Amino acid sequence: MLSRNLLAFIAVAEELHFGRAAQRLHISQPPLSQQIRQFEEEVGAPLLVRTTRSVQLTPAGRLLLERAHLLVAEADAALHAVRRHALGDEGVLTLGFTHSTVYRVLPQVLQVFRQACPDVVLELRQQTSDLLVEDVRSGRLDVALLRFSASMDSAGLVSSVVSHDPMVLVLPLGHPLAAHERVPVRHLQGLPWVGYEPQGARYFHELEEKLLASAQVRPHVRHHSLLPTLLALVEAGMGAALVPLSAVQGGAGRFAWRELALPAGGAPLDAVLSCVWSADNCNPVVQRFLACLPQA
């Protein structure tokens, strides 16, 4: 990054001896003397006073050496920063996340990532999964933690499963179904219900509809909402709901929750959380972030 002539001058100015400076630079003395003369011509001022017994700096040479030390330090710092940036130790990461990640996964991931990459600037954006997918694809986000629905367009995206979160039945306090340790899914028939918005919570809406269709039951849907408002509606007695377990842990005294007893042969009802990024994303910090994710 710095010119060869400047580096040659620094060596001579620090050693005050052409022979030692030449050894330091791994060149012979005549080419070094020629470089210094060329450099003095470039600068337009004598930098060294040479005698048969000594080499001394002129006032211009002392000033240039001071400035040269600053240039060397800045160049070293720049190279160090570039290397750290290339390794993902520094830089910026724009991270999107959906509402349901804030209960458990997001705090855990952020804590691990901040410890691993303390010098990375994090830009956080909370949105619905549909909007997160579009922002990742467009490059407005580097990476996103979201519920990836099968009906979403995955073209150009890469995803990795982060966690499986069991879905549980959430009931108002004192609800008769809370007497069950595990509530048979048939009891959802006609039950006052708070469902998920089809667009704003597409993943949970599709998961809920799949369960109800396979069990051939249909609750009485009174409201559609999103987390965490959905939990507030259950707490207010507006109906029951299906919610990921991580969202209700710590909610004792506000509502009750129970596992659902699914029909024989029914697959476990889990909400899958995924990390999504663009296949074309070249930000090295993304790989550092992915290394901090828990293994599903």
List the helices and strands and how they pair.
Blueprint: H1 4-15, H2 18-25, H3 29-43, E1 48-50, E2 55-57, H4 59-86, E3 91-97, H5 105-116, E4 120-126, H6 129-138, E5 143-146, E6 157-171, E7 182-184, E8 192-196, H7 202-215, E9 220-225, H8 229-235, E10 241-244, H9 245-248, E11 256-261, E12 270-278, H10 284-290
Parallel strand pairs: 3-4, 3-5, 7-11, 8-9
Antiparallel strand pairs: 1-2, 5-12, 6-10, 6-11, 6-12
Helix pairs in contact: 1-2, 1-3, 1-4
Describe the structure.
This protein has helices at residues 4-15, 18-25, 29-43, 59-86, 105-116, 129-138, 202-215, 229-235, 245-248, 284-290; strands at residues 48-50, 55-57, 91-97, 120-126, 143-146, 157-171, 182-184, 192-196, 220-225, 241-244, 256-261, 270-278. It has 296 residues and is an alpha/beta fold. It folds into 3 domains: 4-86, Winged helix-like DNA-binding domain superfamily/Winged helix DNA-binding domain (Arc Repressor Mutant, subunit A, Orthogonal Bundle); 96-158 and 279-290, no CATH class; 163-271, 3-Layer(aba) Sandwich (D-Maltodextrin-Binding Protein, domain 2), CATH 3.40.190.10. Strand 3 (91-97), helix 5 (105-116) and strand 4 form a beta-alpha-beta unit. It is rod-shaped and about 105 Å long. The mean pLDDT is 90.
